[in-house]
């Protein structure tokens, strides 16, 4: 059975005294020894950080027990990977209070805390990932962000004005509509328009299998319909439309046509957001940047869609800065209990903030993730938790109780 190393952080549900932790640790030390588990436990007065090493199945069983322990909550997995040999085998079972950071350190064998803090104990000064994470924890880089609801309490949620629907489709294309929620304004600030087949078929169904020429033409043509429908639905916020970068590059006057259609329908072009991903290779970046500027010249906005989903990544962002980035669902889902996602999202927020780019979290499906995202500073959300896309109509919004009471 493979040896594994596992690190998690969690939040204490009460104020633990050092004596209690000492007892607690000597209790579990016996059990852990029996099960071949080594490691250490740190407590900074609010958070726990635990490193565990042992056989995979034993560790998994132990995690089940740890997860149901009422003395802590908000368990965030930071590391779980195979190791060749134990790194924390010699750490002693004792508790120490360090004056530097008031860190309580409970390890599984005698060791100098100064060594722990400086992490210089290993030969050749090599630091493992566990060491580095531990160091980050000691520097407070894994401490919780505080939920700040002050602004969101101020306003009751506004309804989407009409729950209007497209009764009779006189258009050549079909769409579903999904809101982007602004929790500061407590309203749907934007509606994203998603292509569908006549019976609600998926975008892949509609767009897949077309040759590139047909695809790009349809992509642009269908936007005339999405804007017409939005005008018919009488929504006054932003309208987000999806386009492949190559559609904008290949179809003559694509941007002019979109902007003109919006203008004709009484939708101010600055309310139109063009969402693009890097799904297709953009081999002519110069030409693409010209196009980005043309969108700006027409007063429309640009969003990078599915940011972080493999295609739409850092090099795209390095080359041009859009108005908005939409962080992909694959990174958002599960963030409340996942260290790597937490670290990535915080960095993206930090980077976007410095560059004056608005951040939207896509694919929010549950309350824990939403709370975490709010605490990290995101105020705009799209996801099933608030509303699923509705075929040919504006959906109702589900407002979470914790935001509205
Ligand atoms: P997208 O632009 O990222 O649109 C969001 C997709 O995520 C939608 O799928 C939506 O239903 C789904 N979604 C939103 N919130 C959640 C959630 O909480 N959980 C889950 N599991 N899914 C969620 P949909 O409508 O199937 O669209 C898929 C993709 O098709 C879109 O991704 C977009 O890239 C593309 N697409 C849609 N319409 C057009 C179009 O007119 N032109 C082009 N070129 N692409 C389009
Ligand atoms: Mn999109
Ligand atoms: Mn997306």
Structural account:
The protein has helices spanning about 20-35, 55-65, 115-120, 130-140, 150-155, 205, 210-230, 245-250, 255-265, 285-295, 315-320, 330, 340-355, 365-375, 400-405, and strands at about 5-10, 40-45, 45-55, 70-80, 90-95, 105-110, 175-180, 185-195, 240, 270-275, 300-305, 325, 360, 380, 390. It contains 15 helices and 15 strands. The model is unreliable at about 90-105 and about 110-115 (pLDDT under 50). With about 400 residues, the protein is an alpha/beta fold. The two termini are about 50 Å apart. The chain is about 35% helix and about 25% strand. An eight-stranded mixed beta barrel has the order 7-8-9-10-11-12-13-14. Helix 7 runs parallel beside helix 9. The chain is elongated. Bound molecules: ligand C2E and manganese (II) ion (MN) (2 copies).
Shape: elongated
Main beta sheet: 8 strands, mixed, barrel
* Ligand species: ligand C2E, manganese (II) ion
Structural class: alpha/beta
Average pLDDT for all residues? 86
Radius of gyration: 26 Å
Oligomer: single chain
Number of strands: 15
Give the DSSP E fraction (strand runs of 2 or more residues). 15-25%
The residue fraction in helices comes out at 25-40%
